[in-house]
Amino acid sequence: MKTIDIIHDEHRALAAVLQALRFVVNEIRSGKLKADFRLLTAMVDYITQVPEKVHHPKEDNYLFPKLRSRSKQAAELIDILEGQHVAGYRMTVELLQALLHYQSVGAAGFSAFDTLVQQYLDFNWQHLNQEETELLPLAREALSEEDWAGIDAEFSANFDPYAGAEGEFKELFGRIVNMTPAPYGLGPAG
Ligand SMILES: [Fe+2]
Ligand SMILES: [Fe+2]
Fold first, then answer.
1. pLDDT computed for residue 162 by the predictor
2. Which contacts (CB < 8 Å, 24+ apart) does range 92-100 have?
3. Domain 2-179 - what CATH class?
4. Which ligand does the CA of 7 lie closest to?
5. Residues contacting 12, CB < 8 A, separation 6+
């Protein structure tokens, strides 16, 4: 199933950025790294835009509705996951505001940003995990070959996990990797 591969790929790309964000924020908290706002902004922009524009629409519009119609158990889980998509986007908007505040007031703004980052990381690991360990197994069980063919076609039609319509997310992902200090990225260690 192409759909499952694509979901795994997109989750991996998002997880890479989340791990890099966790690393950078931990290093700032422990005084080992000075805040690089170009990097932090690129990271927060990525985790705001890519789920909302590239990843969630495919889940919300193709996989979820088909699976909802095939399994009552999955329907209950899908209600929860759809709610998390909305809540997660709201959290990223708050994260962006906290980052802007941190950038404008300096060190005094770090702890509020840090708190939101930790909340968002916990929330998102849990969401990705629930999709991988609960949703996808139910989907494998409940969907027919014909169902998968239809969903695969839709997923492949707008498939490019990193690029986005204008290629903008591919460039953004590359920039994040280049700016993140080693060992999580290719930048010089802090
Ligand atoms: Fe999701
Ligand atoms: Fe997902």
1. 60
2. 92/44, 92/47, 92/48, 92/51, 92/52, 92/120, 93/48, 95/44, 95/47, 95/48, 95/120, 96/44, 96/45, 96/48, 99/37, 99/40, 99/41, 99/44
3. mainly alpha
4. 2
5. none
Distance from the CA of 14 to the center of ligand 2, in angstroms? 9
Neighbours of ion ligand 1 (CB under 5 A): 59
Ligand 1 centroid to residue 116 C-alpha, Å: 19
- Spacing, Cα 57 to ligand 1 middle (Å): 9
Q: What is the dihedral of CA 164, 167, 11, 188, to 10 degrees?
A: -150
Tell me the CA–centroid distance for residue 82 and ligand 1, in Å.
7
* Centre of ligand 2 from the C-alpha of residue 79, in Å: 14
Residue 102 and residue 108: Cα distance in Å, rounded?
7
Distance 128 CA to ligand 1 centre (A): 7
Gap between the Cα atoms of 17 and 97, Å rounded: 19
- CA-to-CA dists, residue 172 to 30, 168, 176, 179, angstroms: 27, 6, 6, 11
Phi/psi at 181 (5° precision): -65, 150
Q: Which positions of the chain have pLDDT values less than 70?
A: 158-166, 190
Residue pLDDT, tens place only, 61-96: 999 999 999 999 999 999 999 999 999 999 999 999
Task: Please state whether the predicted TM-score (pTM) of the whole model is above 0.90.
Answer: yes
